[in-house]
Amino acid sequence: MSDLVPLKIGITCYPSVGGSGILASALGEELAQRGHEVHFVSYERPFRLPTDAPRIHFHPVEINSYGLFKYPDYTLPLSTKLAEVSRTHGLDVLHAHYAVPHATAAILARDMLPPHQRPKVVTTLHGTDTTLLGRDAGYSPAIRHALEHADGITTVSEFLRGETHRLIAVQRPIEVIHNFFEPRAPTRSRDAVRQELGVAPAETLLLHASNLRPVKRIDVLLETFSRLQTLPACKLLILAGSEFAPYAATVERLGLGDRVIVRENIIAIEDYIQAADLGLFTSESESFCLSILEAMAFGCPSVATRVGGIPEVVADGETGVLVPLGDNAGLARAIDELVANPARRAALGAAAKQRAREKFSAEVIVARYIDFYRRICAADPLRASAR
Ligand code: GMT
User: Fold this and answer.
1) Residues 348-377: pLDDT tens digits?
2) pTM
3) CA–CA separation, 282 vs 301, rounded Å?
4) Distance from Cα 98 to the centre of ligand 1, integer Å
5) Structural domains in the chain plus CATH codes
6) In terms of Cα–Cα distance, which of 259, 199, 198, 261 is closest to 231?
7) Does residue 97's CB lie within 6 angstroms of at least one atom of ligand 1?
């Protein structure tokens, strides 16, 4: 198949707020902008997907819960829908983002079809599918089976490739294709957003963005913020991908009520990221940490725990500061030093923005995915000649 022939790509992912769904939506949008035909299949439309972009289609999965089922099943209706969309639109590739249940549903869909109608299945592992579910005896064998039967496997970091081989014992080659972030233009000015947040020009605004899952260690985030020497000059903005209410008591106990600002389920994240001066991320495990890259793209450096794939995103000491997991005093010290030294913060931020553009832009990363798709498709003469 010539490199000039546009590809027809199906993408299945979680449509909700979370790194894998955000990346999958952005990838589909970029592929369509490059002339490829993109079909999203999920139980809801991915929340960041534009509604009117050309060559982007959405196919909802209908889930029927029968009285016999104690839990509604998603994997089988998803696999059936993926097979139907593949057959109807002649898909070249089915790209599953996050192994559970998307990787299994994708190979099931492919195997339902006659050989000449079968798309190639690519699975991208994003993090907790390996680092959490890969340790779960109820999931690991099924994930391994789905990966062994995929036509291509990618992970979003070198760290995650290593963990996938170690925890899931996959014998197949795994390609590392890092995440990307292409910032949209903010809809409001930095000053207007800081005014909305009640942040004075002289104050330093710290930023944390995540879905608040336990692995993010929001307890450490709040405890670190509370022990800052520079606390009177700081505020903390939390862009929460889920309800923050479970942490409200901790905020009160630490006496942070007037310094912690929360915004839940924000779609226009760029408005708020541009308003921040410093990121703070305290995860105990992260395969990549898209939120750090989003901040870097706006020249906002981060202080973060040195875990997982984060050292592949942040050049420690050059575009941010990494601190060993468990050294909460070290996190607070690093924040204090950067709050007290705006010139160093600005230098880190400028380098962070350049690194985001040079290593993690859509231009660099989307080309990697397209090249990977074409190599996978070329490996199947039957499929290549069928078009
Ligand atoms: O736990 C989350 O952050 C959500 C999760 C997901 O899959 O939606 O994020 C994972 O995928 C992101 C996109 O590839 C990565 O940036 C995150 O580091 C990763 N999360 C973890 O590894 C904990």
Assistant:
1) 999 999 999 999 999 999 999 999 999 999
2) 0.95
3) 14
4) 9
5) 8-180+361-386 (3.40.50.2000), 190-359 (3.40.50.2000)
6) 259
7) no
